[in-house]
Amino acid sequence: MTDPQTVAENRPSMLARLMAGIASHAPHVTAGPIDDAPTPDEPGHPEYHRRQRAEFALGRWTTAVPYRYQDATATHAEILAWADRAADDYRSAGFLVLTGPIGTGKTHQAYGALRRIAEAGPKRFEMIATTAPDMYGRLRPGGSEHGTEHELKRLCRIPLLLLDDLGTEKLSEWTEEATTRLVNERYNECLPLIITTNFPVRAATGAPSTDLVTRLGDRLASRLAQTSTVVQLDGPDLRRGLRSVS
Ligand SMILES: Nc1ncnc2c1ncn2[C@@H]1O[C@H](COP(=O)(O)OP(=O)(O)O)[C@@H](O)[C@H]1O
Ligand SMILES: [Mg+2]
Q1: Is 97 helix (H, G, I), strand (E, B) or coil?
Q2: With 0-12 CB in 10 A as exposed, 13-18 as middle and 19+ as buried, what is 156?
Q3: Ligand 1 pocket test target in 97, 108, 234 with most atoms within 8 Å of CB
Q4: Full-prediction pTM beyond 0.90?
Q5: Is the CB of residue 108 below 6 angstroms from any atom belonging to ligand 1?
């Protein structure tokens, strides 16, 4: 006769029987890793957040850009390369100087470069675009609400600054001082600066002295020459082409 204690020991435990029962009834499902990684259209994906930043930056770009240049797109390879460096890291881009005769598309390319940066969706997108004469007007005592120093600091610190038509006016001692401080400060902080000018950075030897060096002075021009990507735009006056069709 079998001893009752041995029978109890040989009987499968309640838990084992329960597990066996579940296994025999449950559908055959193997647990595995769950793929809940966000797609590029969902929050959490880097591309989703890049697009959000780009949308915000393009909004700011549109607000800062005059109506005529709302469609501006950079097409020049060197300008595109500069904009991509700036979008990657503002502090590594240096200055961008666009020179060339009137109507060759300097302002168009400059706004286009800023658009390219906005489209990349940088972490921070703040820009000021001004013509040099407007800037001097605002820097003059009484020319801006908060005063010259405040205005100059704002221009020194803004991450992206476009100074259109630099050198149009011969600099007075005062405007040279303001321009030197601005360029120096941005140079020291490694902040980008886009300049457009009708004057070559340095005229060919023997040419009449109508270059940035003579317009801005040696100190300033040497800073620019040292840190700038200089792009010469040539070709016909695009405004003439526009006039003949309008
Ligand atoms: N790539 C381009 N595509 C379309 N229009 C352009 C282009 N480049 C310049 N323009 C137009 O030609 C005109 C002259 O260009 P602009 O950038 O103002 O010249 P600049 O600043 O060299 O004097 C402007 O009306 C501008 O909108
Ligand atoms: Mg222009």
Answers
A1: strand
A2: middle
A3: 108
A4: no
A5: yes
Question: 168 in ligand 1 pocket by Cβ < 6 Å?
Answer: no
Ligand 1 in contact with 68 (CB < 6 A)?
yes
Q: Which two tokens stand for residue 69?
A: 């240049």
The domains of the chain, with CATH numbers, are 50-245 (3.40.50.300)
Confidence of residue 27 (pLDDT cuts 50, 70, 90): low
CB 190 within 8 A of CB 181: no
How would you class 68 by CB atoms within 10 Å of its CB: exposed for 0-12, middle for 13-18, buried for 19 or more?
exposed
By alpha-carbon position, which residue is closest to atom 25 of ligand 1?
Answer: 239
pLDDT for 47-101, tens place per residue?
999 999 999 999 999 999 999 999 999 999 999 999 999 999 999 999 999 999 9
